[in-house]
Amino acid sequence: MGWTFPWASSSGTDFNADFTVSITPEQQRAGGTEYNYRRQDAADEAALAKADGPAEGARQTGTEIATYVRERPGMSAFALEDGVVYHTYSAFARGLDGLWGGYQWLDRAPKGRNEPDFWWRHHDQYGRR
Fold first, then answer.
1. Are 76 and 19 in contact, with CB atoms under 8 Å apart?
2. pLDDT tier at 40 (50, 70, 90 boundaries)?
3. Over the stretch 49-69, which tens digit does the pLDDT of each residue have?
4. Which of 54, 65, 57, 58 is nearest to 25 (CA)?
5. Which of 16, 83, 105, 111 is most buried, most CB within 10 Å of its CB?
């Protein structure tokens, strides 16, 4: 699309674990982690397989369901002032919808998002299923 803007990556750091948007397989099996300010139960493989969202997301990305749900959506904002970094905001799960501008317009349309499948496709993938 030709868009450019500066990115910061958490790759190779403890950031995602610190903010509990990434968990290990051991944490997933044991439960007790927190996400979106709620305690998470141990993973129930049978329940995950029945859940439409995670099961379909895993299928579309070519991974197993347990792996798919270990990486969870989240964003954080920080401010740097006088050499001190301040955590100013975090959002998780559906709290991120406001950042996906297209959804804000579609949610107000007569048919809402009217997604034909599990998720929106990029403009170059409209013909694919």
1. yes
2. confident
3. 777 778 888 888 888 888 988
4. 65
5. 16
Name the nearest CA neighbour of 44 among 62, 33, 31.
31
Q: What is the distance between the alpha carbons of residues 103 and 53, in angstroms, rounded to a whole number?
A: 17
DSSP string, 28-75: HHH---EETTEE-PPP-HHHHHH-HHHHHHHHHHTS-HHHHTTB--EE
Give the separation between CA 129 and CA 121, rounded to whole angstroms: 9
Residue 128: strand, helix, or coil: coil
16, 17, 39, 73, 90 from 35: Cα distances, Å: 11, 11, 7, 10, 11
pLDDT tens for each residue of 77-109:
888 899 999 999 999 988 888 887 877 888 888
How far apart are alpha carbons 119 and 125 in whole angstroms?
12
In angstroms, the Cα distances linking 76 to 15, 19, 24, 100 are 10, 9, 20, 15
Query: What's this model's pTM, rounded to 2 decimal places?
Result: 0.65
